[in-house]
Amino acid sequence: MPTIGVLALQGDVREHLRALESAGARTLTVRRPEELERADGLVIPGGESTTMGKLARAFDLLDPLRKRVEGGLPVYGSCAGMIMLADRIEDGIAGQETVGGIDMTVRRNAFGRQVDSFESTVRLAGMGDTPFDAVFIRAPWVESVGAGVQVLGRAESGPDADRIVAVRQGRLLATAFHPELTGDFRVHHYFADLVRRATDQED
Ligand SMILES: NC(=O)CC[C@H](N)C(=O)O
């Protein structure tokens, strides 16, 4: 059984650990490079991407994270985690650092300029016909994606309907919303399967 780490510098770590465990994964919290080494897959939680970027730098994790992503580590990023996986950011702070890996531009704090959070139904390709009740909290959206990126889902209601909110590029998966908060763990099941397949290929 593969071990899936949750980057535990900042953000809603515990909810992801619980969701991954319910998807049958063994879990590990990751704060140090040695812990990252032991992970077969990684979740980057929601939180605040500017803080997470600074802490990743301070904990000497940023370069190891970039190297493992280049080496094919499966990673799922939710909300701030989506920003961390983006190759390009709009409305970031000066000098904001990300891990990168997904050929996309995300806009920080794009949704909910009037309200901080809202819900929308979202259907995700490959994760069943029942829509998710997606919770967005000061969430980014995806402005544009490169040719190698698969769009998995778009917001379905509200003034910003149709914005891209879930993508996959190879072993990298990102959602603008927080499936760990709703008890609907299909995204974590999907990611755990992706990690299992990646681990089998490497054995
Ligand atoms: N819930 C979240 O993860 C919010 C993301 C946050 N607005 C950021 O820029 O990182």
Automatic annotation (TrEMBL):
Question: What catalytic reaction does the record list?
Answer: aldehydo-D-ribose 5-phosphate + D-glyceraldehyde 3-phosphate + L-glutamine = pyridoxal 5'-phosphate + L-glutamate + phosphate + 3 H2O + H(+); L-glutamine + H2O = L-glutamate + NH4(+)
Q: What is its EC number?
A: 4.3.3.6, 3.5.1.2
**A GO molecular-function descriptor:** pyridoxal 5'-phosphate synthase (glutamine hydrolysing) activity
Q: Which gene encodes it?
A: pdxT
Oligomer status and interactors: In the presence of PdxS, forms a dodecamer of heterodimers. Only shows activity in the heterodimer.
Give the protein family.
Belongs to the glutaminase PdxT/SNO family.
Give the source's domain of life in one word.
Bacteria
Query: Cross-referenced InterPro entries, in alphabetical order?
Result: Class_I_gatase-like (IPR029062), PdxT/SNO (IPR002161), PdxT/SNO_CS (IPR021196)
Under the heading PANTHER family, the entry gives: PYRIDOXAL 5'-PHOSPHATE SYNTHASE SUBUNIT SNO (PTHR31559), PYRIDOXAL 5'-PHOSPHATE SYNTHASE SUBUNIT SNO1-RELATED (PTHR31559:SF0)
Name the residues annotated as catalytic in the UniProt entry.
Answer: C79, H178, E180
Q: Name one Pfam family in it.
A: SNO
Q: What is this protein called?
A: Pyridoxal 5'-phosphate synthase subunit PdxT
The family database entries (Gene3D superfamilies) matched by this protein are listed as:
3.40.50.880
Q: What is the protein's known function? A: Catalyzes the hydrolysis of glutamine to glutamate and ammonia as part of the biosynthesis of pyridoxal 5'-phosphate. The resulting ammonia molecule is channeled to the active site of PdxS.
Pathway-wise, it operates in:
Cofactor biosynthesis; pyridoxal 5'-phosphate biosynthesis
Supply the alphabetized keyword list.
Glutamine amidotransferase, Hydrolase, Lyase, Pyridoxal phosphate
Binding of L-glutamine occurs at G47, E48, S49, R108, I137, R138
